[in-house]
Design brief:
Elements lengths: L2 H22 L8 H22 L5 E7 L5 H9 L17 E4 L16 E4 L8 E5 L14 H8 L5 E6 L7 H10 L4 E6 L9 H8 L3 E2 L3 E3 L2 H9 L6 H13 L2 H29 L1 H32 L1 H16 L3 H10 L1 H12 L3 H27 L4 H4 L3 H17 L8 H4 L8 H25 L3 H32 L7 H43 L8 H30 L8 E2 L8
Parallel strand pairs: 1-4, 1-5, 2-3, 5-6, 6-8
Antiparallel strand pairs: 2-4, 7-9
Helix pairs in contact: 1-2, 1-21, 2-9, 3-7, 9-21, 10-16, 10-20, 10-21, 11-12, 11-18, 11-20, 13-14, 18-20, 19-20
C-alpha cells in the first residue's frame, strides 16, 4: 500500500473519530438549555455528515443552482454536448429535479431522493465520474409547500457535493437566491458561472466583489451555452469560456479528486455545525459567568458571616478558652512550681468540695455536700462540652431563613437568564427547608473545629516555651522562697542559737494572705498573657476561614450545573479546534470555490 493511501486512511480514521465524539457530546444530560439546543442541532446535521462520509468514493453529485431564467438547463446541455433536458429563457422551465447519470454508474449506491425526479441515462464523457442534477429555481413565486419548486430544491441540495452557481447580469444580486445559496453552500464546493454571454455584459468583477466577503472564489466563467451547444452538435470544437469550463470540470471533478473533495465537504460541514453550536453556547457565557459570580458571592458571604459569628462566639467564651489553654499549657509545662499553682487553681472547686466532705458530721450534711459537688462537676463538664459544640451551633445563628430565601430568588433569576431550566433545579434553588448546603456547612464546621483545635495547641505551645516557663517559675518562687527562708531562719537559727520566740500567728496570717495575693497576681498576669494571644489568634483564625476556598458550595446542584455547562463549552470548542486542524491538514483545492469559514452556516 502506498504512503499516500496510508495517509488518506489515517485522515479518514481521524474524521470518523471526530464524528463519533460529536455524536457523544455532551456525554450526559444537562439542565442547560443552550447545550440541549446545540446537541439537537448537531444530531440533525450528523446524518448528513455520515451520508457524505459513506459516499466517499462514489461519483460526485453536481447540482445546477441559480435563479429563474439564468440558463441552468441550457448550461447542462452545453456541458454534455447534447440536448438532454428542456431549456427555456423565462419563467421556470425545470420544475422537477432532472438527474443525469452515465449508464455504467450504479445509481442506487448514491441513495439520492428520486421521488418527484426525472432520471436521464446519458452517455457523455463528463458523466463518467459524476452525476449532474438540474435543480428547480429557488426564487419561483410559489407557496412553500411540499410540491413547490423551492421545497424540491431544498430536499435535494443536501445530497450534492458541488454546486454550479449560475447567474446573469440581471440576477446576480438577487436576495432570495443569495439566501438560499448561503444555506445550501455549507459542505459543498462551488463553481461560479455567468451565462447569457451572447447578450449580457461581463459583470464578473462586480459579482466577485459582491460575493468575496462570504465565499472563496478562485475563478469565474462567462459562457454562451446556446452557441457552445450548437458548435458541438455541428462537430466543431467548443470556443470561448465554455470549453475552459468543460476542461475545468473534467480535471477538477475526476475520480482521483472525489475523495479529497468529499473529505473537504465533510470537514467543512462539520466545522460549520460546530462553529454555530459553539457560537450558541458563547452567547450565554456572559450570563453564565454572572450566575457563577453570584454563586461565589453568596457562598463567600455566608462563609464570612459564619466566620464573624464564630469570632464573636469564641471571644465571648473567654473563660472556656482560658480553661482549654491552661490545660494545654499544663500538659506541656510538666512539673514545676508555677504549673502546680495552675493545676491547683484549675482544681480549686474540687478541692474545696472534698475538704467540705471531710468536715461533714451527719449523713444529711454529707448528702448535701455531695449534691453540691456533683452539680459543680456537672457544670464544669457541661462548659467543656459547650466549648466543643460551640462551632456546631453556628448554622442556627449565622443566616436567617429570610436571607436565604432572598438569595434563592436572586439565584433563580440569574439561572433563568443563563439558560437553565430552573424546574429541574427546584430542589436546590427553591427548597425552603435547607438554609445552607449541607456539604458546605459540614466542610465549614469541620474546618472551623480543626482551626480551633490548632489554635489551642499553637497558643499552648507558644506559652510553654523554656524561657516563658523559666521566667514565671523564678519570679513566682521569689515570695514563697522568701517565706521559706524566713520561717527556716527563725526555726533553725534564731530559736536555737539566740533563743528567740517562734513566729506566731500574727506572722503566718499576713504571710498567708500575701501568698494568696502573690499567687493570684501571677495567675492574673499569666491569664492576661493568654488573653492577649487569644484575641490575636481568633482574629487570625477567622481571617484564614474567610480566605479559605471551600470545596463545597451553598447551592451544590446549581454550582455543579454551571461547572458542567462550562465543561460542555470547552469540550465543544476542543471539537471545533480539532476539526479546524483536520481541515488545515487537507490539501487545498484552490480551483474550486467554497464558503469562507467565518461565514459558513450548516444547513
Amino acid at each position: 500500500m502506498r504512503q499516500a493511501e496510508l495517509t488518506q486512511l489515517e485522515m479518514i480514521s481521524h474524521i470518523d473519530r471526530l464524528i463519533d465524539r460529536c455524536d457523544e457530546w455532551p456525554g450526559e444530560s444537562s439542565a442547560w438549555e443552550p447545550a440541549q439546543r446545540a446537541r439537537h442541532f448537531l444530531q440533525s446535521v450528523l446524518p448528513r455528515v455520515r451520508t457524505v462520509r459513506e459516499r466517499l468514493q462514489l461519483p460526485l453529485v453536481v447540482a445546477m443552482f441559480g435563479g429563474t431564467g439564468t440558463g441552468k438547463s441550457s448550461l447542462v446541455n452545453a456541458l454534455l454536448g447534447q440536448e438532454v433536458v428542456t431549456a427555456g429563457r423565462q419563467r421556470p422551465t425545470t420544475t422537477r429535479p432532472q438527474i443525469l447519470v452515465h449508464p455504467d454508474i450504479n445509481f442506487d449506491l448514491l441513495q439520492l431522493p428520486t421521488d418527484d425526479c426525472d432520471i436521464h441515462r446519458t452517455n457523455a464523457p463528463l458523466l463518467e465520474d459524476l452525476v449532474i442534477v438540474d435543480c428547480p429555481d429557488p426564487d419561483t413565486s410559489e407557496n412553500e409547500d411540499a410540491t413547490s419548486n423551492l421545497e424540491r430544491l431544498r430536499r435535494f441540495l443536501p445530497h450534492s457535493d458541488v454546486l454550479i452557481y449560475t447567474s446573469t447580469q440581471q440576477k446576480y444580486r438577487s436576495a432570495n437566491v443569495q439566501d438560499e445559496l448561503r444555506e445550501a453552500a455549507s459542505g459543498c464546493k462551488l463553481v461560479f458561472v455567468q451565462t447569457h454571454a451572447d447578450r449580457d455584459v461581463d459583470i464578473r468583477d462586480d459579482w466577485k466583489k459582491h460575493l468575496t466577503g462570504a465565499y472563496e472564489i478562485p475563478d469565474l466563467f462567462f459562457v454562451d451555452s446556446v452557441k457552445g451547444l450548437q458548435e458541438q452538435l455541428n462537430g466543431q470544437p467548443v470556443s470561448g469560456e465554455l470549453g475552459r469550463l468543460q476542461n475545468f470540470l473534467l480535471h477538477q471533478l475526476t475520480s482521483s479528486n472525489r475523495g479529497r473533495i468529499r473529505r473537504d465537504n465533510v470537514l467543512d460541514l462539520l466545522y460549520a455545525t460546530l462553529s454555530r453550536a459553539t457560537a450558541l453556547l458563547h452567547e450565554y457565557q456572559p450570563t453564565l459567568q454572572k450566575l457563577e459570580a453570584e454563586l461565589v458571592r453568596n457562598s463567600r458571604g455566608i462563609q464570612e458571616q459564619m466566620s464573624r459569628q464564630l469570632q464573636e462566639d469564641l471571644l465571648g467564651a473567654r473563660q472556656l478558652w482560658e480553661r482549654r489553654l491552661v490545660d494545654a499549657v499544663v500538659r506541656r509545662w510538666g512539673s514545676s512550681p508555677f504549673s502546680w499553682l495552675l493545676r491547683l487553681n484549675h482544681s480549686l472547686g474540687t478541692l474545696l468540695g472534698s475538704f467540705g466532705l471531710m468536715r461533714a458530721r451527719t449523713t444529711a450534711h454529707i448528702a448535701l455536700l455531695g449534691l453540691t459537688q456533683g452539680t459543680r462537676m456537672w457544670k464544669q463538664h457541661q462548659q467543656e462540652q459547650d466549648f466543643s459544640s460551640m462551632v456546631s451551633d453556628l448554622n442556627d445563628l449565622a443566616v436567617s431563613e429570610t436571607e436565604i430565601e432572598e438569595k434563592r430568588l436572586v439565584l433563580n433569576g440569574f439561572a433563568r437568564q443563563a439558560g437553565f431550566e430552573t424546574r429541574k433545579l427546584q430542589r436546590d434553588v427553591s427548597e425552603p427547608n435547607r438554609p445552607v448546603g449541607s456539604a458546605f456547612q459540614a466542610e465549614f464546621l469541620n474546618d472551623a473545629q480543626a482551626e480551633v483545635d490548632e489554635a489551642v495547641e499553637r497558643l499552648g505551645k507558644k506559652n510553654s516555651k523554656s524561657h516563658v516557663k523559666l521566667m514565671y517559675d523564678l519570679l513566682f518562687l521569689v515570695y514563697p522562697g522568701f517565706l521559706l527562708w524566713r520561717i527556716g531562719k527563725n526555726f533553725f537559727w534564731d530559736s536555737f542559737l539566740f533563743e528567740e520566740p517562734i513566729l506566731a500567728a500574727d506572722f503566718y496570717i499576713p504571710a498567708g494572705v500575701f501568698l494568696l495575693l502573690w499567687c493570684g497576681l501571677f495567675i492574673m498576669f499569666f491569664t492576661r498573657r493568654l488573653r492577649r494571644g487569644l484575641k490575636q489568634e481568633v482574629r487570625n483564625l477567622v481571617t484564614r476561614l474567610i480566605d479559605r476556598r471551600l470545596h463545597h458550595d451553598m447551592f451544590p446542584v446549581l454550582q455543579r450545573e454551571c461547572q458542567q455547562a462550562q465543561a460542555h463549552t470547552i469540550e465543544l470548542a476542543e471539537l471545533e479546534e480539532e476539526c479546524s486542524a483536520l481541515r488545515a491538514e487537507q490539501p487545498q483545492t484552490m480551483s474550486l470555490g467554497a464558503p469562507r469559514p467565518a461565514e459558513v452556516e450548516a444547513r
